[in-house]
Structures are given as structure tokens and as C-alpha cells.
Amino acid sequence: MKNLLILICLLGAACPSLALDFKGVVVGAHSTPESVESELGGDSKTVHCGSGLDGMQICNGYTTVAGAVAKLNLVIDSGGQVIRIDLHFPSAFFERVEEAVLEKQGKPLKTDRSQVQNRMGATFTNISHQWIAKNKTTLTLTKYASGLDSSDLYFGSPADTALFESLKKQRAHDL
């Protein structure tokens, strides 16, 4: 049943009208580096933006999510539209972030559970929740993202997916 809902959602018919934003910065909406630095970096000025590939603006730094310090990567395309907000935070805060995201976004469209293993052979249950908005923007929350110590909260637009695919093709023959 969930696969049918995902298919319907991807076809654009019955997706929830989620506002996929982080602290007022909306994926798929226009923004400026100055507003990103102000809204996400706050008075401490912990987020900085600069020029990136093909006229894009790349914003990196530190912010908080549900009280956890998170490493931020945000991309604004050459037209001024936010296409990615990616937050990495300690997995010890996953449940706190999960609770906040569930409260804000409601039940995810899809939840996957899988087993991950550390170097000593111990296994842990990884959890990945996914929400898909009507404009096909996705929100993914993953407990163990790049290792057992790091969780990820990713907001991505279809333009970000296309960017990843384009870069992947370019790198396919980079030897």
C-alpha cells in the first residue's frame, strides 16, 4: 500500500501539501545568501555563503536542529531558488530530531528499517523516514547516515536530484 502511495505521490496526484522548510528557509522557494546566513546562522554568524558551481551559492556552517548542533550544507541555484538543505548531527540526538520532525510534518510517507554493523560486528537498526511534497521535494531523516555517529536530515528538490545525477555522469570517466 505504501508503494502505491509513493507512486501516486510521485505522479503528482495525491501528495500532502507539506511546507518543506527549515527555520523559514523553504526548499523550492527563492532566497538570498544574506537571508540564509541571518536565519540559519543567527547572531553568532555560524553560516557563510559563497560562490559555487555554475553561479550557484553554497552555504555551509553550523546551526541547530531540535537543540542539536548540526553541520549545514545549503545550495541556492543560479536563479535564486533553494534546492538543498542538508543537516548532519550526532546520532545521539536522532530521537529528539525525529520527534520534532514528526510533530511538524506528520506521519512519513515511507519508513525503512535496515540493519547496520560496526567494525566489531555489533548490529544496530537504522531508520529512514521519507516525506514527499506535491512539488516532488523530499524530506529524508536517516538515523545512521555516514556512520553510526552521524544522522542526516535532508531536504531536496528535483533540481538537486538532477544536479547529483549530472555530477555523477561527469565523474564516471574521471580516471
Q: How would you describe this structure to a colleague?
A:
The protein is α+β, with helices and mostly antiparallel strands and 175 residues long. The protein has one domain (2-10, 25-171). It has four helices and ten strands; from the N terminus they run αββαββββαββββα. It has helices spanning 2-10, 33-41, 94-105, 158-171; strands spanning 21-22, 25-26, 47-51, 57-65, 68-76, 82-90, 110-117, 123-132, 138-147, 150-156. The strands form two sheets. Strands 3-4-5-6-10-9-8-7 form an eight-stranded antiparallel β-sheet. The radius of gyration is 17 Å and the shape is globular.
**Cα gyration radius (Å):** 17 Å
> Largest sheet at a glance?
8 strands, antiparallel
- The residue-averaged pLDDT reads 87
Low-confidence stretches: 1-8, 10-14
Strand content: 35-45%
Q: What's the β-strand tally? A: 10
